[in-house]
Specification:
Largest sheet of chain B: 2 strands, parallel
Largest sheet of chain A: 5 strands, mixed
Number of helices of chain B: 13
Structural class of chain B: mainly alpha
Helix content of chain A: 10-25%
Distance between the termini of chain B: 109 Å
Distance between the termini of chain A: 103 Å
Oligomer: heterodimer
Radius of gyration of chain B: 28 Å
Order of helices and strands of chain B: HHHHEHEHHHHHHHH
Shape of chain A: globular
Helix content of chain B: 55-70%
Strand order of the largest sheet of chain A: 14-27-26-16-17
Shape of chain B: elongated
Number of strands of chain B: 2
Chain lengths: 711, 279
C-alpha cells in the first residue's frame, strides 16, 4: 500500500516536474476586464476643446496624419505588396482565405491571439503600427476603412490595387470616398477619415499595458504589442488627475498604466520592427507557444538599442535614466546645454528631460464643476524625429483637412519651441552627433600617404541613425584642400547628373537629389503584365545597375578593413542570392545574369532583405574612429597640371543627413508609376517630388584641422 | 511501517526540492523579461553574418568558433589598431573555416538543388566566410602577396561575382611587381594585374540598358585609372591613353575622390597619345 502510494505520488510529482521542464512560458492572466463605459475611438478634434495645445502639437507631427498620407510610406507598403501578392493587406474575421495547410486566415497581426502563422503577421503588417485603431474598427464592416483585397498571391490583381491613403477619405457624413482611379486625387468634398489621423490621442491614452503575447520574444517589443481599450477611461501621466467636465472621459488612476505611459517601454511596441521573413544570417523564431514556425528578422531596433544602451541606466553623463519622452516629448533641445566627456572627447549638447510648466488642459472649460487646474510639468506632443513631410501644404490640406500646419512655419509656441517641424527636426539632428579630427597626422609629404582620423560619437538614446536606419542617410563629408582651396581629396560628395530613369535628362542644378558616390545603383521598378505572379520577375526590387563608385568606403571598410572612402552611418539591407538565382541584371550580351556562388548584395527593397547589417550606425556614447589614408599627388603630377601646393593643408569634416537615398525614391517612383506593376500612376513619388522635397541637412556636426605639408 | 513513511517523506521532500531547483534555474520564461539571449549575437542560419558587430555588444569572453575569432580580429584591427593580434585571430578563424582542410564548404548550385527549395538551418561543414579572407588578405598585401592573392581567390570561389575582389587581386599583383627586381616576375605580375582589372570591369559592364538608365558611358573610374598606371609602367602608352579616356568617361557624372586626377588624365592623354581627342 505504502509502495503503491509512494509510486503514485512520485509519478504525480514526476509528471509535474516533467511538465515544468517542458514548459517555456508561465501562464499569465488576461488583462483586467475594463469596467468603464465603452467609447469608440475618437477623432483628435474631439479632444481639442480641452487640450488645444496638445492637439496643435500632435497635429504637426509626422506621427499623426502625415505618416498615413506620406507618399513614401504608401509607396513602401505598395512595393512590398506588389512583390508578395498583397499579403501585407489586412484580413478580418469575415475572411474566407484559407492557408496552404487548410486553416482559415481570418485574423491579422493585431487580432491574432497568438501569431502562429507567418501569414497572420504579414496581414496588415504595416497598417498595425501606423493605424491600429483603424484595423481594430475594421472588424466591423460598417467602420472598415482598409478593405481586404479580393485576391492574394496568384489571385492578386495589381491593376486594382490602391495605396492605403486612398481609403482614408470620407464625405461630410463620414462615408468613405474613394478617388476615381487608384492613387487619384481626393474627390470633391473629401475630408480626412479617422484613419487619416493615424496615431491619435486615443491610441496612446487608451493603452492598457503591453500585450506580451503578441511580441515574438514576449517582451512587448514590436508588432504593436500594446493592449488598447475602447472605453472612456483614458490613461494620463498624473497620479491625481482632475475629473473631466461632462464625463467625456474618466482618467485612469491605475499606477501601472500611468507608469507604463510614462516609461520608455511604452514606445517599444512600435519602434522595433521585426519582419516575418527568414533571415539567412541570424535565426530567430517566435517563442510563443505554437509560434515556432514564424521566423523573423530585426529590421528596426530603435527600442532595443535604447533598452540595452547607456541612457536606460545611470551610467550616462546625466546620471539618470533618460527616457524616449525626455528627448522627444520635452523641451529638448531648447532647454540649455550640458558639457561632459565622452571617451577622450569633451562635448557640449542640449540637456534632456527638461519640461515646461503649464496646464494639462484648458482652464475653465475642461474640469468637472470648473475645478481649478494646477500648473504642472507637462510634455510636448510634437514627437519630433528625423522626418519632414515630402508633400506640399496644398496636398497635405487636401488629404488631412484645411489648415494643416506648414512644416516650414516660423515663430515659436508658448513654450519657446519652434512651430515649424522642419526647424525642430534640424535642431534635433544638430544635437545627435559630434566629431573630432584631433588624431589626424600633423604633417604630410607630397607623393606620400597621410592619415586623417575622424572620431565620431552619437549622443542619441539609440544608435544614430535609428529606426529605418537602412535608408536614413547619415554620412561624413570630408575634404582636404591646400591653403588656396585646391581640392586634394574629397569624400561624401555629390555630383549633379542626369537621371534618365525618372525623366531628368540633364543635370538640374540641384545636389539634394543626388546619391553619394560610393556605389551606383538603379533598382528595377518592375512592369505591368496581363497575368500576375509573385516575386521580383515583373514586380521589381532587384538592382538593374550595381557598380562600385569612386568613393567606395562603406563595404571596403566593413568587409576588407580598408581605411578609405565614404564614412556612411547608414545601415545596410542585404539580399542573399543563392547559386542559380537571377540577380536582376543582364550581361553585356543581354543574357540574364545568375548568381554563381552565394552572392551577398545590398538591396533597397526591404521586402527582399534576408540579412541586415544594423551595426554601421553609431552606438550611443561609444566613440568610433575612422581612418582615411590619403594619397597626395607627387610634385611632378602637380607640375603637369600647373598647380603649386600652398601649405598648410586644411581638413574639413562635417556630418550631413538625408532622410532617404534618392535612388530609393526613384525606385518608388518607378514601382508606383504608370509603367510599374500596377499599370496605374499611384501619384506617390516622381522626380518633381524628389527635387522639391528631398533636402540634405548639412553640417549637423563639424570639425577642422590643419596639416603641414612638405614637398 | 514508520520507516516506510519516513522514506516516503524523504523521497517527497527530495522531489519538492528538485522542483524548486528546476524552477529556480530560470528554465521558465517570465513574460516581460527582456530578451533571454543576446539579440546582438546572430545564430547563423545557415550563413554567417558577414561584416562587423560592435565587440562590446557581442558578449564574447573567449572566442569559440571561426566567427568569434573573426569578430575579435576586427575589434583588434578597427578599434585597437592592433594589426598583429588581428592577423593572429584571422588566421585562427581561417583554420576553423578552411577550404583546404574541409572545415568549411563552398555552396554551389548542386548544394542548393539538394535543399529542395529551402535552405537548411545549418550546414555541415559550415559555409566558407568571405570577410575573414578579405580582411586577412588586405593586411598581408604588402608582406605576403602570394598568400593575399590566394585568400582573395578563395573569396572568388565563394562568390565569383563579388565586386572589388578582382581589384584587390590586381592591386596585390601590382605590389608584387613593384617589389620585385626580376623583370620576368614583374612582367608576369603586371600581366596578371591587367587580367584581374579586366575581370573586375566585366562584373559591372556598361550595357545599353545601364546607359539608358544612368547616362554613364563608362564605369569604375578607379579600375580604369589603376589600369592606366599599369599600362604606363609597362610602356603600353596607347592602352594607357585608352584607359585614361575611359577614366574620364567614368568620372563625367561621378568625379573622383582625387579630383586632380581628372586634370592629370587629360594632360597625360595628350602626352601619351597626342592624336587622341580628349572627351
Amino acid at each position: 500500500m505504502s509502495v503503491r502510494y509512494l509510486s503514485g505520488t512520485s509519478l504525480f510529482f514526476l509528471c509535474v516536474l516533467v511538465s515544468g521542464c517542458g514548459a517555456q512560458v508561465q501562464n499569465t492572466s488576461d488583462a483586467p476586464q475594463v469596467q468603464f463605459q465603452r467609447q469608440q475611438f475618437q477623432r483628435p478634434e474631439n479632444c481639442l476643446p480641452c487640450h488645444q495645445r496638445q492637439y496643435n502639437e500632435l497635429h504637426s507631427s509626422v506621427k499623426s496624419g502625415y505618416r498615413n498620407v506620406s507618399p513614401l510610406f504608401n509607396g513602401l507598403e505598395a512595393a512590398a505588396n506588389l512583390v508578395n501578392g498583397g499579403l501585407l493587406r489586412p484580413v478580418y474575421k469575415d475572411s474566407t482565405v484559407v492557408l496552404p495547410d487548410g486553416t482559415p486566415l481570418n485574423t491579422n497581426m493585431y487580432s491574432s491571439p497568438v501569431l502562429t502563422e507567418t501569414r497572420q503577421v504579414q496581414a496588415a503588417f504595416c497598417l498595425t503600427c501606423h493605424n491600429a485603431n483603424t484595423e481594430i474598427l475594421g472588424e466591423n464592416t460598417a467602420f472598415r476603412e482598409v478593405p481586404q483585397l479580393p485576391g492574394f498571391l496568384a489571385s492578386f490583381r495589381p491593376e486594382i490595387f490602391r495605396p492605403l491613403r486612398d481609403y482614408h477619405l470620407a464625405d461630410a457624413n463620414g462615408n468613405q470616398l474613394l478617388p476615381a482611379a487608384p492613387g487619384g486625387d481626393p474627390p470633391a468634398g473629401a475630408q480626412p477619415s479617422l484613419g487619416a489621423a493615424g496615431i491619435t490621442c486615443d491610441f496612446c491614452h487608451d493603452e492598457n499595458g503591453p500585450d506580451l503575447n503578441r511580441s515574438f520574444q514576449m517582451d512587448g517589443f514590436a508588432n504593436t504589442s500594446l493592449l488598447l481599450n475602447q472605453s472612456n477611461a483614458k490613461v494620463g501621466p498624473f497620479a491625481f488627475p482632475v475629473a473631466v467636465k461632462n464625463h467625456f472621459h474618466v482618467v485612469s488612476n491605475d499606477p501601472n498604466l500611468i507608469g507604463f505611459l510614462r516609461a520608455g517601454a511604452f514606445c517599444n511596441a512600435c519602434h522595433d520592427v521585426r519582419v516575418p521573413r527568414r533571415n539567412l544570417t541570424a535565426e530567430e523564431h517566435n517563442m510563443n507557444p505554437g509560434g515556432q514556425n514564424v521566423s523573423y528578422f530585426r529590421l528596426e531596433n530603435l527600442s532595443t538599442e535604447w533598452q540595452v544602451g547607456p541612457y536606460n541606466s545611470t551610467t550616462n553623463p546625466f546620471g539618470t535614466v533618460v527616457r524616449c519622452q525626455d528627448c522627444h516629448m520635452s523641451l529638448f533641445p531648447y532647454a540649455g546645454t550640458s558639457t561632459y566627456p565622452v571617451g577622450d572627447m569633451t562635448v557640449t549638447s542640449p540637456t534632456p528631460g527638461v519640461f515646461a510648466t503649464d496646464y494639462a488642459a484648458v482652464p475653465g472649460v475642461s474640469t468637472d464643476q470648473d475645478a481649478s487646474l494646477p500648473q504642472r510639468k507637462v510634455v510636448e506632443h510634437y514627437f519630433t524625429g528625423v522626418d519632414v513631410p515630402m508633400a506640399s501644404p496644398d496636398e497635405l490640406s487636401a488629404r488631412l483637412g484645411p489648415g494643416y500646419p506648414d512644416p516650414y512655419a516660423t515663430g515659436t509656441d508658448s513654450h519657446g519651441v519652434p512651430l515649424g517641424l522642419a526647424t525642430r527636426r534640424h535642431n534635433l539632428l544638430d544635437a545627435a552627433v559630434r566629431i573630432s579630427l584631433n588624431k589626424t597626422d600633423t604633417s604630410a609629404q607630397l607623393g606620400q600617404k597621410f592619415s586623417v582620423r575622424l572620431e565620431a560619437v552619437s549622443l542619441t538614446g539609440h544608435r544614430f541613425p535609428a529606426g529605418f536606419s537602412q535608408e536614413r542617410t547619415t554620412y561624413v563629408q570630408l575634404s582636404v584642400t591646400d591653403n588656396s582651396g585646391f581640392v586634394l581629396y574629397q569624400s561624401g560628395y555629390e555630383v549633379d547628373k542626369p537621371h534618365p530613369n525618372t525623366g531628368e535628362l540633364a543635370p538640374d542644378g540641384n545636389l539634394d537629389d543626388e546619391d553619394l558616390e560610393h556605389l551606383h545603383a538603379v533598382v528595377d521598378p518592375g512592369k505591368h503584365t496581363p497575368t500576375y505572379s509573385t516575386g521580383t520577375g515583373t514586380n521589381g526590387g532587384n538592382n538593374l545597375v550595381f557598380e562600385t563608385g569612386p568613393d567606395d568606403g562603406p563595404d571596403a571598410r566593413v568587409y576588407v578593413g580598408a581605411p578609405e572612402g565614404l564614412v556612411l552611418f547608414r545601415n545596410e539591407l542585404i539580399h542573399i542570392f543563392l547559386p542559380g538565382d537571377p540577380i536582376g541584371r543582364t550581361s553585356a550580351a543581354g543574357a540574364p545574369v545568375k548568381a554563381q556562388g552565394v552572392h551577398f548584395e545590398e538591396t533597397f527593397q526591404a521586402a527582399l532583405a534576408d540579412s541586415v547589417d544594423n551595426f554601421r550606425s553609431l552606438q550611443p556614447l561609444h566613440p568610433r574612429t575612422y581612418t582615411y589614408e590619403i594619397q597626395l599627388p607627387t610634385q611632378q603630377q602637380l607640375q603637369t597640371i600647373g598647380v603649386t601646393i600652398q601649405g598648410p593643408l586644411h581638413v574639413h569634416a562635417q556630418v550631413n543627413y538625408e532622410h532617404f537615398p534618392p535612388l530609393f525614391l526613384r525606385f518608388l517612383a518607378g514601382v508606383t508609376g504608370p509603367s510599374g506593376p500596377t499599370g496605374n500612376n499611384l501619384n506617390l513619388v516622381d522626380e518633381a517630388r524628389i527635387d522639391t522635397f528631398l533636402k540634405n541637412i548639412e553640417d549637423i556636426a563639424s570639425d577642422d584641422t590643419t596639416v603641414t605639408v612638405t614637398p | 511501517m514508520k520507516l516506510i513513511y519516513r522514506y516516503t517523506f524523504l523521497i517527497l521532500l527530495t522531489l519538492v526540492l528538485m522542483l524548486i531547483a528546476v524552477f529556480a534555474q530560470n528554465v521558465t520564461y517570465t513574460p516581460g523579461e527582456f530578451q533571454t539571449s543576446n539579440p546582438y549575437y546572430p545564430k547563423a542560419d545557415p550563413f554567417y553574418f558577414e561584416g562587423k558587430i560592435d565587440w562590446n555588444l557581442l558578449g564574447i569572453t573567449q572566442p569559440q568558433n571561426a566567427w568569434d575569432f573573426l569578430q575579435r580580429g576586427i575589434h583588434f584591427q578597427d578599434d585597437l589598431n592592433d594589426t598583429p593580434d588581428a592577423i593572429n585571430d584571422y588566421q585562427t578563424s581561417l583554420s576553423m573555416n578552411s577550404i583546404q582542410s574541409g572545415t568549411c564548404q563552398i555552396v554551389t548550385l548542386a548544394t542548393v538543388q539538394s535543399w529542395n527549395g529551402t535552405p537548411p538551418a545549418q550546414l555541415t561543414p559550415a559555409p566558407c566566410m568571405f570577410t575573414v579572407r578579405l580582411r586577412l588578405g588586405y593586411l598581408l598585401e604588402q608582406t605576403n602577396t602570394s598568400r593575399a592573392i590566394q585568400l582573395f581567390q578563395e573569396v572568388l570561389q565563394i562568390d565569383p561575382q563579388r565586386l572589388g575582389v578582382n581589384t584587390l587581386i590586381a592591386e596585390t599583383y601590382v605590389i608584387e611587381a613593384q617589389q620585385s627586381t626580376d623583370p620576368t616576375t614583374q612582367q608576369q605580375a603586371y600581366a596578371n594585374a591587367v587580367s584581374a582589372f579586366q575581370a573586375e570591369l566585366a562584373l559591372s559592364p556598361v550595357t545599353s540598358q545601364s546607359t539608358a538608365l544612368t547616362a554613364d558611358s563608362a564605369n569604375n573610374s578607379k579600375v580604369h585609372w589603376e589600369l592606366a598606371q599599369v599600362y604606363q609602367a609597362t610602356g603600353q602608352n596607347g592602352l594607357a591613353a585608352s584607359e585614361l579616356q575611359s577614366y574620364l568617361q567614368a568620372t563625367q557624372w561621378h568625379s573622383d575622390v582625387y579630383p586632380w586626377r581628372i586634370a592629370l588624365a587629360k594632360s597625360q592623354i595628350q602626352t601619351l597619345q597626342p592624336q587622341l581627342k580628349v572627351k
